[in-house]
Amino acid sequence: MLDLITAGYLHSLRTYSELIFTAVLASSSLNTVLRKPTHGKGIVSTSINIIGPERIADDVGNTLADASAYLQHPFFLHARIKYINPQYFYSENEKKDLRHLIGPPMASPRFLRLSEGVESLLESLDDLSRLAPSPDRPFVSAAIGEGLILTTLKRFGLPVAVKHQEDGVKFILNREDPAFCDSVTSDLKALISCRSSFHHPELFLGGIVADVMGLGKTLTMLSAVVYSKDAAMEFVKANSYQAKPQLTRATLIVVTSLLSLPQQYHRINCNDMSCCRHLKPGTLRVALFHGDTRAKTTEALIDYDIVLTTYRTLAFDWKGHRILQKIGWFRVVLDEAHWIRNQSSEQFKAAEGLQAERRWCLTGTPIQNSLDDLRSLLRFLQFQPFAKQAFFEEHIVEPLRSDSHDSFRNLKLLLRTICLRRNADYLHLPPKETKEVFITLTPEEREVYDRILKGCQAEFDRIVSTKSETKKYNVLFTTIMMLRRLCNHGTLQVAPPSWLFCEVCGGEDENIVTLLGSLETSPECSRCLVRQEC
To answer: Which residues form the Helicase ATP-binding domain (predicted)?
Structure first.
């Protein structure tokens, strides 16, 4: 029996009748299980080889990529079988046999060295020497003095009592300063020694804020939006002669889920001082681009400071009217930017197609599965020539395959130029304490709890009576998730009668389910994606 994630990946290939799946297990793993007194049952690491005719390799690779699945090198393959990986970068047009790469990667010292090296490199991106503002730039706390920002930017015990979120704002403002960016890009060009490849690259403004969760990436970016309001107005005036695209001073912020939109909205846009979490009421004009009431013209969005939308709505708009694509944004910010790591997905293509002077990625995991995750962000940021696959492979990936002491040099230079990351040490949290506290549900909470269980039972009855293709494990998983949310937060809105189905597949955008490919559960709320009427 395979885990649900792996099974889902293989399920995406169900239309390829010529494929064969072979499970490969290390004998050492089996021996460990057989020695345990569990009657031969246990969990072991398994590799699945996908075997089929070479003519469909590219199609299979693209289908897997759409499902966010990425092929790794097998650690075993029978003789006389050619190994072609359609997701592997071939420097030449011919796809050559890659049998020399077959082997157990996790046991490889080189693999461990690369993994540890990348992690160490990410932890070194908190150097504050890059954050000194230009002499003619006003100190970034001016807006605090004017009372525009209500939340105090956090201070912690660095030698000069620097505020880490304030430093984050300085980093953002530096990366949006054309003179500064031109200077550091020139330095990067000289250090990597590839002058010919940097033939007059287009200046790119923006970067990556990769602080770990809890350091306030959202507040940092909101503060930068406040500080740059004058620059945003100047951007529109300076380019007012352009007929297309229609320019706006607004920053477009893309978030992962519609569930987070109300929270984000009330953080920055309200008239009541008691409920506005971060900003003085009226500091920023905010619009939501989501649902049936979203703007139908570009003119309806240009007179705002911030426009909020989700990745799903962005992709849906990209396939349809392209309202967001027709606007020239002052700034585009991708929250949880690792959502676009799959470069063949509609979400990535929709984000890449946005027109903006400044582009930002907020993510705690800029390199989640492989270095190709980073290249996806570089493509969105339009940081050339590093966003080009051949250049990235030659100057960033290839050096890492060597055993030299400076194999990480180019990657470090690149990330230090465009990325800022601080870890949880900056929060100075006290040691973790774990306590078990038993509570009794209130009558209201018990009513919701029982309603969820009854809904689960009713859904099981429906599946059995109608011979539905909905998987029972989806219902169980969804129920557990909902009960956990209820116990964690004490409240959970359950909207009968279709309590089980999330807004993605049964809500405001009738065709939005087509964006989700073959997924059976929502990536946003883990609820079932199969609508009852289907």
So the answer is: 198-384
